[in-house]
Predict the structure.
Amino acid sequence: MICELLIVTAMSLFCVVSFAQVVPAFAAVAGFYLLSRSMAAMQIIASAPLQDPTLTDRVVNTVVNLIALLLPALDAMTQTTWLLQSAPSVSILGAVVGQTALYLVLICSAALFDLYRKNF
């Protein structure tokens, strides 16, 4: 839960620094969060065509998978079974912490780049 919170906090700081107004920054963070949380469901929907897969189905599936590669897997960072049954294994927890560290470095470096680019 903390890893997900760190990524969303870093993204919100990046958007507040980058955008001139609060409403577009809030909309960008909300869109980022919702898209990151629901990307697994979108991948399932895109990979299951109703009939024989056509070229369009394959293109849509590829585009959705490419978007999923760019976004953090926030749906895998917090699971209800971790709270109710057993704690996650060390390998799962290591993958979550590694992904969090990677996205924190990327988002914070983008925020610093944008902050240094502005002349106050």
Notes: The two ends are 36 Å apart (CA to CA).
